[in-house]
Amino acid sequence: MHPFEQHIRNVPDFPKPGIIFKDISPLLTYHFDEVTHALCEGINWDEVDAVVGIESRGFILGAAMAQLKGKGFIPMRKKGKLPPPVISESYALEYGTDTLELVQTDKPLRVILVDDVLATGGTLRAAMKLCEKNHYQVKALSLLINLTFLNKFKEEGHPVHSVLNY
Fold first, then answer.
1. CA-CA distance, 61 to 59, in Å (whole number)?
2. Which of 95, 108, 149, 155 lies 20 to 30 Å from 22, alpha-carbon distance?
3. Which residues contact 124 (CB under 8 A, 6 or more apart)?
4. Domain interval for residue 126
5. In 3-state terms, what secondary structure has residue 98?
6. Residue 23 falls inside a structural domain
7. What is the CA 26 to chain-centroid distance, rounded?
8. What is the pLDDT of residue 156?
9. How far apart are CA 22 and CA 13, in angstroms?
10. Residues marked as catalytic
């Protein structure tokens, strides 16, 4: 067992029945610096202009990574949270649907996508499409937790750097 795992709390039936939510709050309370460094491992930072953090825990992790590596940070938010002009991408979740948005730009950037948990892959696929629409080249995917039993993301040709795998 990875030492981080003892600080992750499983919350049953949240946000709806049948879902086991991985609460990373205790982990960040005691090991935030170590988590940030672990998320940055294995990435060629010379090929990166900015870190894109997916709302909301991806903000916390991605902003810390950007700060650590001296890169810019770009928030990818839920619908209606960013000022126009925005571009959007809708997707299915394991418990519903949602939409992500980015402030629209024509400036190409090389980015890393960051989120806390990869479950079915719907959010990450939508985030990748949204980056592509916005002229961002995704150079790496960095996740704290990959629930590999729920997705086949590596098999789809998208390598994923994850600190913890279940």
1. 6
2. 155
3. 54, 113, 115, 118, 141, 143, 153, 158
4. 44-165
5. strand
6. no
7. 18
8. 76
9. 11
10. 57, 94
In degrees rounded to 5, what are phi and psi of residue 163? Answer: -75, -45
Does residue 93 have a pLDDT over 80?
no
Domain count, the chain: 1
Look at the pTM and tell me if it is higher than 0.90. yes
Tell me, what CATH number does 53's domain have?
3.40.50.2020
DSSP 113-149: EEEEEESSSHHHHHHHHHHHHTTEEEEEEEEEEE-GG
Tokens of 151: 């997705």
State the Cα–Cα distance between residues 164 and 148, nearest whole angstrom.
Answer: 10
Pairing of strands 86-93, 96-103: antiparallel
pLDDT at 95: 65
Find the DSSP H helices in 9-155. 25-40, 57-69, 122-133
Residue 107 lies in a domain: yes
Quote the CA–CA distance of 74 and 63 in Å, as a whole number.
8
Residue 25 lies in a domain: no
